[in-house]
Amino acid sequence: MSSSTLLSRPRARAGYAGLALSMLLALLAGCGAEDRKQAYFDRGMELLAEGDPVKARLELKNVLQIDPKHAEAWFQLAQIEADRQNWSAAFGGYNKAVELKPDFIDARLKRGQLLFDAGQQEDALADAAAVLALAPENPDALALRGAVRAKQGDLDVATADAQAALAVDPSHRNGLLLLAEVRRAQGAGAEAVALLERAAEAHPDDVQLRLSLAAGYQSLGDAAKAREQLEKLTEIEPSQLIHTARLAAFLTQQGERQAAEQALRRAIAANPEDAQPKLLLVEWAVKEHGPEAGVALLEELVAQAPDQYDLRFAQAELAASLGQRDKSKDIYRAIIERDDLGTAGLKARHRLATLDFANQEMDQALALLAEVLEEDPRNVDALTLRAAIALTRDEPDAAIPDLRDALQNDPESTRALRLLAKAHEMREEVPLAQDALQKAIDAAPAEPAAYLDMAQLLVRSGDMKGASRILEGFLEKVPDDTRVQSALAKLQLSQQDWDAMERTADRILETRPDHPLGYYLKGLLLQRDGRLQESVEVLKVAIEKRADAVEPRLALARSYLGLKQVEDAEASVKAYLDQQPANAAALNLLGEIYASAGRFKEAAAQFEQVISLYPKSPSAYTRMADLYVRAGESDKAISTLRAGIEETGRNAFLIFRLGIALQDAGRGDEAISAYEEVLDSNPEADAVANNLAMLLANARKDDPASLSRAMELARGLATSGQWVLLDTLGWVQFRSGDIEGALSTLEEAAGQVDPVPAEMQFHLGMVYASLGRDDQAREMLTAAVDSGASFPGLEEARETLEGLSSASLGGG
User: Fold this and answer.
1) Residue 753 domain flag
2) Which stretches are TPR repeats (predicted)?
C-alpha cells in the first residue's frame, strides 16, 4: 500500500466525522428549537392567564417564527385579535388554524361564528357541519347550525337545534340565546324574555345577554327592568363608556333627562382624569339643549381641567361648526401657547393650518406646517396637508415626496393615497394613479371615497365600463351608500345603459325607500319607455322626498313636455328657478320648453343667458346649435359649437356634436377629423366610433385605408348587442366585401328592432342585391325609398332599385 493511500484515509474519516458532527448539531438544534417553541407557547399562555395579551402576542409570534404550522399558536393569536375586535385578523388566525388542523373544533367554531356574523351563512353552516361530524352532540355547533337556519327562516329546525344544545348543557349560552330569538320571532315575547333571564342568571357578566334582555323588557313595555339591565352593564364594565351612553340615551328617550345627566356625571366622577366622559356629557347637552349649552359646559369643564387638551380641541371644533372661525383659531392658539411644541401644541398647529388651507390662506398654513415638521419630520397629517397645498398650486412634483414620506409612516392612510393618485394623474401617470387608489380601496374597503375617485379617473380615461365595475363592487359591500348609488346611476344614464340603471333603481328602492334617488331613476326609466303619465306620478314622489332636489323636478318638467303639457312644464321649472335663479340645468330646460313651443327667440335668450353665466359649461352651446339647425342655419350651429369647444378647453362631447353638425352639413372630411380627435382621448366612446365608421364607409367607400379604419372601429362594436351598432358593423362589412358576414350581422340587427328603420332596410337591400336575392332586395329597397325618410345612401338605394327593376323587365 502506498504512502499516499495511507494518508488519504484519515482525511476521509475526518470528512465523515464532520458530516456526523453536523447531523448531531442539527439534531441538537432541532431539540433546542422544540424546547424554545414550547417555552414560548407556555409563557404566552401564562401571560394570557395573567391578563397581558400584548406580551402574550409577542411570545406566540415567537412560536410561529420557529414553527409557522403551529395551529394552537394561530388559534390563540386569533383569540387575542378577537378580544381587540380586530375581526379581520381574528378570522385570518382561525382560518390558518383550521387549514393546518382540519379537526380543530374550537377554531372551526370560532371561524363559523365570524362567518355567520359577516352574513356568509352557507360557509358558517359548513363549519358547523364539520364539527358535528366530529362531535355530533357539540352544543356550540348545534347552536351555530340553528342560528343559520333561523336566519334562513327555518324556525322549526332552529328550535330543534337549540333544544338539542340545551339537552347537552341546560345553561348553554348560545342555545338559550338562539331559542329566545326564535320565540321572539314567533311572537312569544314573554317566553323569549324568560329564556334570556335564565341565560343571564347562568352567565351574569355576559354583556350581550344583558343587552338582549334589556331590549326584551323594553319590547314588553317594562322600562324599569330594561333600565335595571342597562345599569348593571355600567357595573359589569365601568370603563366602557358605551354602556353609559346607552343608558343615558334610554333615559332620555323615557323622558328622564335629569337621570340621564346624572348617569353621565357619575361616569365623570368615576374617571376625573379621563376627558371622554366629559365629552360624552357635552355631546348629550348639545343634542338636548342646543350648541350654546355645549359651549357653556365646555367652558366650565376647561376651567376645571385646563390641561385636558381633548376638551379644548372639542371647544374649537364646536366653535367652527357654529361658524365661529376666529374663535376656533383663538382656541388653537391658546393650546399652542400653553403646550408649545408638545403633542397638543403640534396638533393645534395642524388644525390651524387646516383652517387656513380651507380659507385659501396658503402661506400661513405652510408656515404652521413648517413648525410641526421641524419638530416632528414624520408627522403624517402635516406632510399630507403640505402635499394637498402643493397640488392646489399645480405642483405634483413637490407633493409626491411628502406623500411618500407620509405613507412610509402610515401605509394605509387613505387620504395620502388619494392625494398621491391625484398627483400622478396630474403628471399623466395614470397607471400609478390607479395603483395608489387600489391601495386606498384595499386599506378601507367599506369607505366610498377611493372608489369614487377611481371611477372618476376611469371615466376621464374613457373606461366607462371599468368605472361601473368599481362602483358596483363597492355596492356589493355597502349596498345602501347614496353617494355611490348616485354616481353609478349618473354613469349608467350617461351611457344610456337602461338595464343596468333599472337594477340600480330597484336596489335603491329596496335599500333606501325614503331616498328620492330610486324614484327619480324609476321616473326616468318610465320616461324612456314612453309611460309619461306614470313617470309624472313617480317623480312627484321623488320631489316629496326631497323638495330641493334639482334632477327630479327637471325630469318632471320633461315628462310634462312629452305630454304636451307645456304650461305645467314651464310652471315646474319656473317654480324651481324662483328658489335657484342661476341654476344652469333649469335655465337650459326652460329654453328647451320655449323651443318646443316654437318660442325660438325666448329659447335663444335663455341659452345665451346660460352661456354668459357658465361659459365653461357645454350644454347651452349644444342647445343653441340645435336651434340654429332647426332654423336651417348650419353655419351658425357650427360656429356656436366651435366657440364652445374653445371656451371649455376642447370638451369631448362638444367636439362630437361638432362632428355630427359637420357631417349633416356635408363637410365629411372635417367631421372625420372631429370624430378622430374625440377617440384619441376617449377610445371606448362607442357612439363616436359608430358615427366615424359609418361616415368612412359612406364617404370614402373607395379608399382601402379608410375602409380598414372603419372595420377596425366596427369590430369594437361587435359585442355591444345594440342594433344601431350592429347595423354599422354590418354595413362596414358590406363595403369591405364581406357580404356573408354583413348578411349575418344585419339580419341579427333587424331582428332586434320593429319596425326596421329605413336606413337598415337600405343596407339589407344592398346585401340581398349583391347575393342575387333580387326579390328580397326589391322589397327592402322599396320600403326604404317609400318611407319618406332621409338617410345617407338614399340616391344609391333609388339607383339600385331602378337597376333591379330594369333587369326584371329585361328578363321578362
Assistant:
1) no
2) 71-104, 139-172, 584-617, 652-685
